[in-house]
Amino acid sequence: MQYDYNIVIIGSGPAGLEAAKLAGKNNLKCALIERNKLGGICFNWGCIPMKFYIQKLKEAKKAGVYITLEALYNEKEDFLSSGCYGGNCKCNCRYFSPPTIKG
Ligand SMILES: Cc1cc2nc3c(=O)[nH]c(=O)nc-3n(C[C@H](O)[C@H](O)[C@H](O)COP(=O)(O)OP(=O)(O)OC[C@H]3O[C@@H](n4cnc5c(N)ncnc54)[C@H](O)[C@@H]3O)c2cc1C
Q1: Domain encompassing residue 14
Q2: Is residue 10 in contact with ligand 1, taking CB distance under 6 Å?
Q3: Is 1 contained in some domain?
Q4: Separation of 34 CA from ligand 1 center, angstroms?
């Protein structure tokens, strides 16, 4: 039997991306399947956004400036889209997201 991939990873959170990196290091051909946003909870809604918000709020407080929720949110979105996971992951995987999954 022939296979197109040595490994299929479901979910692109920290666990999935780590698995994808390991697969790449071991020269395994891998498919990464994600139903939502690349990076999972940690990158899109959890650890990274929380740390970003806390840092920005501390900076604003120190500088004595007022920052709106909308401005904070937009800054966070810019920050995330410029990062590694923002469609720019270097894990050497073929990445399947909802627009590319058919059927
Ligand atoms: C507000 C908040 C703050 C946090 N802060 C921290 C912190 O400071 N430090 C820390 O260590 N942890 C933190 N965490 C926890 C951290 O986010 C999780 O431990 C981590 O995201 C788990 O990674 P994971 O890869 O196991 O799962 P997830 O990040 O949940 O990724 C799973 C991925 O799989 C996808 N998926 C699931 N089922 C399917 C399917 N059937 N088909 C296709 N795709 C699928 C999901 O869409 C998702 O993208 C925080 C969490 C939250 C909510």
Answers
A1: 7-100
A2: yes
A3: no
A4: 12
Query: Of ligand 1's atoms, which has the minimum distance to the CA of residue 41?
Result: 29
DSSP state of 6: S
How many domains is the chain partitioned into structurally?
1
Per-residue pLDDT of the chain (103 residues; tens, 9 = 90+): 788 899 999 999 989 988 988 998 899 988 999 999 888 998 889 988 999 999 999 999 999 999 999 999 999 988 888 765 544 445 555 666 555 544 3
CATH of the domain at 27: 3.50.50.60
- In angstroms, rounded to a whole number, what is the distance separating the alpha carbons of residues 87 and 74? 18
66: CA distance to ligand 1 center in Å? 31
